[in-house]
């Protein structure tokens, strides 16, 4: 059984770092606002890496769908329920080694609180759509995934891909 000891948020520039101290476990989650200093292909990724594009996400989800058509999200979510709220036996299998975590989100400037911790894993892409940016998300109580466009004022996780 898990025991949460402390949960803290630290802001460093446009990055919100979620420190989740659990008994014998420390996990860091980073939630990024897509401002001019973060948005774009390289974004916050190290040299030689870039934030995944919508096309790269589409390729990843197509591969996961080919493995388990009705359980794409399950294939991509971290195995077990350490970083996901338990829901009627629904949990990830991490068949592709992606290990999406339920890091939650930081709301927009209109609602700047943190929410959905262990309930949603939300990821920015570097692909813009008008004044929005594409993002993909996974839910704790669902084996699927979804994508949509969101204002850049939200804070979500990113995945860096090697160039």
Question: What is shown here, in short?
Answer:
By secondary structure, this protein is mainly β. Helix content is 12%, strand content 38%.
Order of helices and strands: EEEEHHEEEEEEE
**β-strand number:** 11
Count every helix, treating DSSP H or I runs of 4 or more residues as helices.
Answer: 2
Distance, first to last CA: 40 Å
| Strand line-up across the major sheet | 1-2-3-10
Radius of gyration based on Cα positions: 15 Å
Biggest β-sheet description: 4 strands, antiparallel
Q: How much helix, percentage-wise, in residues?
A: 10-25%
What does this entry look like structurally?
- With 163 residues, this protein is mostly beta strands.
- It contains two helices and eleven strands.
- The protein has helices at residues 54-67, 72-76; strands at 4-12, 15-22, 25-33, 49-51, 105-106, 114-115, 120-129, 132-139, 146-151, 155-156, 160-162.
- It has a four-stranded antiparallel beta sheet, with no helix packed on it. It has a three-stranded antiparallel beta sheet with strand order 7-8-9, covered by helices on one side.
- A hairpin with a 2-residue loop joins strand 7 (120-129) and strand 8.
- Residues 1-10 and 18-29 have low confidence and may be disordered.
